[in-house]
Amino acid sequence: MVSGSTATRGHSPRIGGFLMQRSVNDCCPTCRRTDHHEIREAAQSSVGRPSSGDSRSQTLGVHPDHNIHGKMQTYSADDHNTSIYSVNMEVKNYFYAIAVHASKMTVGERFPFLILYGSETGTAQDSAERLWRLATRQGFDARVMAMDEFPITDLLYERVVVFVVSTTGQGDPPANMAKTWSFLLRRSLPADSLAKMWVAVLGLGDSSYAKFNFVAKKLHRRLTQGLGATALCPVGLADDQHDLGPSAVIDPWTIDLLDHVKTKDVRLLKMRLPKAEKKFSYSPGDVVYVTPSNSTEDVDKFFDLFGENGFLRSNILKLEQKYSGVSVPSQLSGKSFNLESCVRNYWDLNVIPSRSVFEVLASVAEDELEKEKLIELSSPAGTQELYDYCNRPRRTVLEVLADFPHSRSHLTLDHLFDLLKIIRPRAFSIASSPLEDELLLLVAVVEYKTRLKAPRLGLCSNWLKNLPEGANLTVWIKKGSLRFPLGADQKTPVIMIGPGTGVAPMRSYIITEHLRSTDDRKRPLILFFGCRNQNADFFFSHEWSNIHNLELFTAFSRDQPQKIYVQHKIIQQKEQVSKRLLADKGVVFVAGNSKDMPEAVSAAIKRCLIETGGLSEKEADDWLVQAIKDNCYQQEVWN
């Protein structure tokens, strides 16, 4: 929280966080307390040494109400302007790693796709072009044209094709698709001609006619059943006679289509430990913590925004302790550092701002319009307004600062240390076995759209994605919440449910068991894995067939019209699941997204116990409660 006083550029009151002092005479009486350290000019250290004429040294002090918690460690990456910071979190097992490779585990980017229309009166063309506009606004690489304008021979090389067609006369195709229509209906075409293609068909018709949407229905059937294409979603049959018109079908069909076309960009990050760190050990289920840096693009935006404030990349800063018991964060303590290093490695420019950001801005605002808005956003009465402005569109603190230029121009470095949050470390489940030479992380790259024009990017996942090969990074390991049975009774079955990136800790355990067990002492392992598409995000698919004591059950939710998830596969194996858990005293491990999956999985397992295990509903509930208490049912889920 900030104090109620306002600030000018010539005076820096204590507003929480840090206090930057220029001279004793410029400070408030509180800042001249005898328990403060002597104010001194920051030394011109080798960290970000400015050129002659650019020297602007300033000393900052820590106040007891600053918002930094936890002990932090600093490591110099080299003799230049870069430092590698890692939050220690009371764990001493931190170590250097070298990024070896960050390969894609999926197709990665949004699929480029082709939209072909067959239109007689222009309605289907309008719908196709509207779909194209919507897709391009969401970042898809899409093309749109009449069906007969596209070379038929090139169709075989397309990955995703969307057909928007109308029906004319007595079930006839429009004139601008007649040639392609005739070609696709040839009986001489092999049944697997389009086996590598994903298709979607939207029909526009009128149910008052006997052959309502005949062309769309026949085209969809021919593409999928006759030529081997895979349907992205069910055929859409828009109807002019619907009370809401064709949009009643077109709008939800379009949303479903674009959701199907999206794929997650998942990277397998391989890290090699220096020889001195080979002694470092971990167990399956452990997690790695990584502290990222801001992107160069965001750092440049920061200095563009604050150019008129006199903030230079080469500004030399130094933090000093002002009250006993309140220590300077150690990665900024005891040395001078330049402002660019602080902006890149310390302040989180990607975070969604809290109310306190608007309190700080309101305290310095002089423009009446901005001040009124800032006071509203920082007040309890403006909670809904704050949510609509920041949380719903996921607006970053950098974007907020850009929206209030007049107030931003009055911010000092003191304010920024109070306003901007520290970059927090991110945790990732380890996908490698401790018996392997490399440390593997399965990282889902976060990128999504809101109503804001620019896509939202996850700070850490995109930083890891863009790490160059050979980059040095500091990571550390903590015990995860999953404690797999190691060296215990080899007869105890282990059932693992790990959809998506939730398979990472499961792979760590499976590979460890595979490498350390002899042929006659291999534990029964069961893995339920789920993803959208087998050809896009079936992680580690090439490895599972080599592990003979592993039974693998897969759910590819988007490879068929009806959705199939891991809980459906569990129920399909209900006899084995109930036997392994009740008769064989097996254990269950669940990892993955926390939205709906954990509850759906536990409900599926209870259903297995009821339908084939002979338990009543209450007994199944009691079994689950006891299994969780005994660590026989363990979960690690995340947002």
Automatic annotation (TrEMBL):
Cofactor(s) listed in the protein's UniProt record: FMN; FAD
Cellular component annotations (GO), alphabetically ordered: cytosol; nucleus
Biased composition range(s): Polar residues: 43-60
Residue intervals of the FAD-binding FR-type domain: 248-485
Subcellular location, principal: cytoplasm
Subcellular location(s) per record: Cytoplasm
Residues annotated as transmembrane: none
Single annotated GO MF: FMN binding
Residues annotated as domain Flavodoxin-like: 113-258
Pfam families hit by this protein: FAD_binding_1, Flavodoxin_1, NAD_binding_1
Keywords: Cytoplasm, FAD, Flavoprotein, FMN, NADP, Oxidoreductase
Region Disordered, annotated ranges: 40-60
InterPro entries listed in its UniProt record: CysJ-like_FAD-binding, FAD-bd_FR_type, Flavdoxin-like, Flavodoxin/NO_synth, Flavoprot_Pyr_Nucl_cyt_Rdtase, Flavoprotein-like_sf, FNR_nucleotide-bd, NADPH_Cyt_P450_Rdtase_alpha
PANTHER family with a match to the protein in the record: NADPH-DEPENDENT DIFLAVIN OXIDOREDUCTASE 1, NITRIC OXIDE SYNTHASE-RELATED
The name this protein goes by in its record: NADPH-dependent FMN and FAD-containing oxidoreductase
UniProt source species: Nesidiocoris tenuis
